[in-house]
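the two lines:
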Amino acid sequence: MSAGQTQQKPAHQHLRRNPPIAGEAEAIAAAQAGDEQAFEILYSLHKRRVYSLCLRMLGNVAAAEDLTQDAFLQLYRKIGTFRGDSAFSTWLHRLAVNVVLMHLRKKGLPQISLEEALEPTQDDGPRKDFGGRDLQLSGSIDRVTLERAIEDLPPGYRLVFVLHDVEGYEHNEIADMLSCSIGNSKSQLHKARMKLRDLLRTGQRKESAV
Amino acid sequence: MTDTRPRGIDMNCADFQDRLPELFETQADLSAEEHLKTCENCTALVRDLEYIAQQAKLLLPIHDPNPGVWDNIRTAIRNEPGQNNSGPSSAPSAGR
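prediction for all of em together
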């Protein structure tokens, strides 16, 4: 499989990301009518996915919790506008992504466009791989190791990598969300994967040196 | 003819790696790439990048927020100003 094989997502991938949830439709209708218990059910059903998204995008527990809270408050305010044109989890997920991006824009450097902010400094970036040392990652990478390496990515790389490779968004969607070009999204993704490889190989070298 | 390439850098690798993002995005069959038939280094690079992308897709949401997050949300929604057109059609109940 190619690393860029994302143009046409197979149905099972959509189902894995947005599986039908028993009782969700009833909870949505009740929450739209103002039922707090129903809203709590929706929170219970989706808190893990929203929080995991925030945490992976931000790499910071406190900020991820704050933005999970913000995302569900936004949900409370906007749930009346949900018409079921897409899966509820897809709709909520996009809402949560927007909450995180708004936060980053506010917190970020307003005089610099996000496209520029996405470009890490030379020191942060991946190296081209011309060397012959430690040709390949050895063995398999466990989930915790990969999560840590993602956390260590420069923020711009991390955003695009999480949105594309973890969350399954397409480059055109990411470009739209980040107000950057599709080419920029593609380029950032490639650099992010290269940088992750650097980080994972460095980790493996350190482990083998112990 | 003098080879002006920097020592230790195989320009075929540089060329190939410059093309790599587009090759991935177009879902090209990389095994057909001539360069990979002879370059162990780039073959390893491609394998690693594919592996990283595959593993990332397997990362499921596994983190749970602190229970206090829901307490804060509940408090906040109870303090929301009454009705608005885009919100729930009636105020949430005060108690459970």
